[in-house]
Fold this protein.
Amino acid sequence: WLGSVEGLAEIAQRLLRVQIENAPAIEVIKRYDRAETLFYLDPPYPHDSRGDKNAYLYEMTDGEHRELAEVLHCVKGKVAVSGYHGKLMDELYKDWKCWEAPVKNCLSVKKPRQEVLWTNYNAINN
């Protein structure tokens, strides 16, 4: 742990212009939505895409996922959403670019899983 202090200055410099908020996601998105903004979201995964039904202190219903996706589809900025393939998420972000991480074993569901990043932009060219 002490060895990580050496990189603290670089980390501080990188985070200098990063805004971290503790507020409802939709409120923050509407407040900061600009063409030059990048929103990274890692919402609680829907129940149909995970094994542990009690993984989060704060859950999201399917309706809340739909409401969030509706807002995200209208933003001016760039959006990246983390998750796993599942009926709901694949439906909500079917028109977005889907980036798939290498498959890895996941203890909570006892089978290989593939993390996904959906973006409303092409990350390769941007």
